[in-house]
């Protein structure tokens, strides 16, 4: 099958997400998909409680009414600037209140946000823009010491289809988001079963893929998440992780809390002291973290001067939280732990707030929906006995059936009957709770960030003094896993800091730069020739760990 990278027509098409008719009918009949759009949701909340505070950051307190008014102005402005419903727009906005008027503005205009993380750099942004056929970027001027405007200019220069860059704050050479407006008129209402936005996959092989999510499926996932997590008008949710990530966005995350009429507080960074101050000031009740941050918070809590007693639920997910650490959450932080095992492709599992303590500390939860179909299979595709480890496959009312424009990856990642191969190895308990054992794929889960070994190998191979490279995960007491690159040099052996700087200079997120580089003379080969990359990575990793002990 031709790769769509070579097919400009395929790239120009908007992302689609299609469930077979009988599944769509079932999900509607059961009331999961209610025909509601993001725009409908915001309008309903703004009508019901216009003066209630929706979103807070250091400078702003936006009510639901403010949020709608600003989003409607932005929507008119986007359309008057020449964007057309269905166009994709890369959104790279850090944790500031302005994220919400920007994305709701796009939704109200029928435009399709493609969410980049603040850590992404030129190479990644160009890839997302090219892959999605994006026409514009929406960014913030600067955040935490980084200026996003020159980055956007470089992306625009590299992707001719991008004609506009809108900036929250000081636009510099670009267009101002804050002054966007246009004559009042009816805005187009997107079809609720159409793609509302794209998330970025963690990238198990090669470059990240685009994950198209519909209004119907995504709103179901965070509406139900909000119910499971006990969210209501009194919920105050602290967005500590980057809001564009699926976990803080929708599990139940900022959108689930806005759905429930609660309040969202944006933390500029996830550091314990920053967040503790915000918890105390805004009486935060709920927050989601990756395991390394939860460990740092537990370290800092006993000595803090801030009153964090309002915190009722701390969610931890994105990577395995070891039971010993999980057991310390309640005694140290004085709140309930909720483990969250999810994926941007769909399926999200939660421990329930009233689960027994050993279930909360010892499992990664159970699915949101009674119609989340979960299979645990051996490598030959046969179900394993209950409680035995196996490959997790899933399909359901909010799990995608395909990535955007990726025929090759789709053939590998989905079964012919539509199950998504998660790449995770799990055990399923009789209660339906899942315990994550590891994963089958070759990506590195570094503090919840998923990094493709292959992608980093390719960056290393671009160096003139690198003959070959194999990238593996090494267990790390703090990060969970760190990135270790085995490198066979050619010619002059590069210095390690210089090689790291070279990788960084390729325009990629800092979290992808190898933590460790180990030089090797040669890689193992078999009698018949080169062994597979997968086997090579496994053997290098094993040898390294044996030597380290
Ligand atoms: C979340 O989403 P992604 O797309 O960044 O990563 C998904 C992968 C999973 O397939 C699994 O390998 C790993 O991250 N993962 C966990 C985990 N939660 C995610 N592994 C072990 N224990 C957990 N609790 O990471 C994500 C999306 C929505 C909610 C929460 C996390």
Structural commentary:
- This protein is an alpha/beta fold.
- It has two domains: 4-428, Rossmann fold (3-Layer(aba) Sandwich), CATH 3.40.50.12780; 443-548, ANL, C-terminal domain (GMP Synthetase, Chain A, domain 3, 2-Layer Sandwich).
- Helix content is 32%, strand content 25%.
- It is built from 19 helices and 29 strands.
- The strands form eight sheets. The chain has a nine-stranded mixed beta sheet with strand order 2-1-13-12-14-15-16-17-18, with helices on both faces. The protein has a five-stranded parallel beta sheet with strand order 4-3-5-8-9, sandwiched between helices. Strands 19-20-21-22 form a four-stranded antiparallel beta sheet, with no helix packed on it.
- β3 (88-92), α5 and β4 form a beta-alpha-beta unit.
- It binds 5'-O-[(R)-(benzoyloxy)(hydroxy)phosphoryl]adenosine.
Order of strands in the sheet with most strands: 2-1-13-12-14-15-16-17-18
Q: Structural class from helices and strands?
A: alpha/beta
The major β-sheet equals: 9 strands, mixed
Count of beta strands = 29
CA-based gyration radius = 23 Å
- Provide the CATH top-level class of the largest domain: Alpha Beta
């Amino acid at each position: 099958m031709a790769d769509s990278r070579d097919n400009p027509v395929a790239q120009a098409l908007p992302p689609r997400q299609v469930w077979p008719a009988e599944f769509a009918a079932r999900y509607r009949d059961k009331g999961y998909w209610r025909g509601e759009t993001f725009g409908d949701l915001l309008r309903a909340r703004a009508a019901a409680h216009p003066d209630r505070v929706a979103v807070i950051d250091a400078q702003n307190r936006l009510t639901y009414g403010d949020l709608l008014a600003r989003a409607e102005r932005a929507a008119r402005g986007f359309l008057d600037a020449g964007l057309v419903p269905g166009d994709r727009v890369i959104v790279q906005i850090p944790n500031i209140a302005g994220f919400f008027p920007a994305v709701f503005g796009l939704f109200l205009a029928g435009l399709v946000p493609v969410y980049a993380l603040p850590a992404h750099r030129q190479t990644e942004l160009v890839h997302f823009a090219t892959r999605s056929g994006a026409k514009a970027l929406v960014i913030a001027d600067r955040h935490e010491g980084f200026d996003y405007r020159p980055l956007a200019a470089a992306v625009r220069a590299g992707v001719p289809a991008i004609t506009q860059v809108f900036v929250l704050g000081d636009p510099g050479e670009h267009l101002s988001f804050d002054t966007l407006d246009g004559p009042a008129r009816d805005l187009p209402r997107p079809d609720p079963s159409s793609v509302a936005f794209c998330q970025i996959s963690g990238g198990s092989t090669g470059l990240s893929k685009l994950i198209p999510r519909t209004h119907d499926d995504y709103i179901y996932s965070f509406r139900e998440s909000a119910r499971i997590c006990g969210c209501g008008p009194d919920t105050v949710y602290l967005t500590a992780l980057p809001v564009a990530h699926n976990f803080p966005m929708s599990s139940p995350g900022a959108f689930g809390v806005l759905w429930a009429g609660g309040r969202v507080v944006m933390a500029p960074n996830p550091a314990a002291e920053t967040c503790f101050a915000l918890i105390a000031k805004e009486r935060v009740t709920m927050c989601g973290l990756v395991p390394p941050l939860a460990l740092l918070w537990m370290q800092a809590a006993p000595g803090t001067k801030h009153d964090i007693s309002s915190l009722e639920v701390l969610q931890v997910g994105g990577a395995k939280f070891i039971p010993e650490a999980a057991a310390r959450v309640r005694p140290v932080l004085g709140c309930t732990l909720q483990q969250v095992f999810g994926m941007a492709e769909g399926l999200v599992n939660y421990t329930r707030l009233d689960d027994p303590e050993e279930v909360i500390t010892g499992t990664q939860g159970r699915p949101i929906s009674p119609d989340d179909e979960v299979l645990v299979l051996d490598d030959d595709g046969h179900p394993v006995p209950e409680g035995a480890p196996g490959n997790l496959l899933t399909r359901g009312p909010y799990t995608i059936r395909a990535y955007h424009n990726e025929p090759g990856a789709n053939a590998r990642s989905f079964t012919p009957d539509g199950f998504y191969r998660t790449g995770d190895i799990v055990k399923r308990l009789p209660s339906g709770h899942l315990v994550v054992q590891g994963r089958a794929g070759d990506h590195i889960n570094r503090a919840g960030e998923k990094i493709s070994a292959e992608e980093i190998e390719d960056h290393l191979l671009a160096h003139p003094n690198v003959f070959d490279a194999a990238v593996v995960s090494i267990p790390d007491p703090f990060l969970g896993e760190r990135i270790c690159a085995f490198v066979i040099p050619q010619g002059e052996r590069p210095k390690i800091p210089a090689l790291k700087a070279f990788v960084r200079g390729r325009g990629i997120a800092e979290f992808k730069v190898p933590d460790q580089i180990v030089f090797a003379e040669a890689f193992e080969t078999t009698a018949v020739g080169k062994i597979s990359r997968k086997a090579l990575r496994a053997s290098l990793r094993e040898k390294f760990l044996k030597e380290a002990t």
